[in-house]
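Appendix B, Record 12. Input sequence as logged:
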Amino acid sequence: MPGPCPDTHHPFNGEPHTVFLKNFITRPTIEVGDYTYYNDLRDPRDFENSNVRYLFDPVGDRLKIGRYCALAQGTTFIMNGANHAMTGFSTYPFHIFGEGWEDEFDISTIFDHLRGDTIVEHDVWFGTNSTVMPGVTICTGAIIGAHAVVASDVPPFAVVVGNPGRVVKLRFDEETIERLLDIAWWDWPADKVARHLGAIRGADLDLLEAACRS
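Logged structural output:
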């Protein structure tokens, strides 16, 4: 079987709680790869408004999520627009309310410490109510535990838990991780993924490398 079409809106038996996320993204500053899904008993279709916070076009940052990621309910991305100026005695954002409070405000006091795009690579699993802070890169194969707050970059195939999020272990030894990154099954065409699901879901690296060459 070829597997579901990535353009399917509700791929889990048509249930409304799970969506292939890319089909509900309208903002050009958010990119989501094929087969990445979001599960939410409320309304997963509203992810870009409810779960991507403070993404303001004038700030210029982007959220990029790769293929085959699994996002549990409440997965939230805090973007750079959440930042306040921290160069003076007060962090209160007087300028956003206008009425004269914007006068003489130096916008560089905010932009000087922004952290850039937030990037999630491929095959990353996010637990319930996990939070990702601005400018973080989460590499392929990582697992983000429920309620974790990720404020720094996450290496490939790492497991992160807690607040602040910390790497508690790597899923595989370094040699295996390097081989998996070379295989990069998440970049294969969908029909090749479908043909070799046994190897992808299995634990035989030689078999997966053979599938890569086929």
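The chain has two domains: 18-85+114-171, 173-214.
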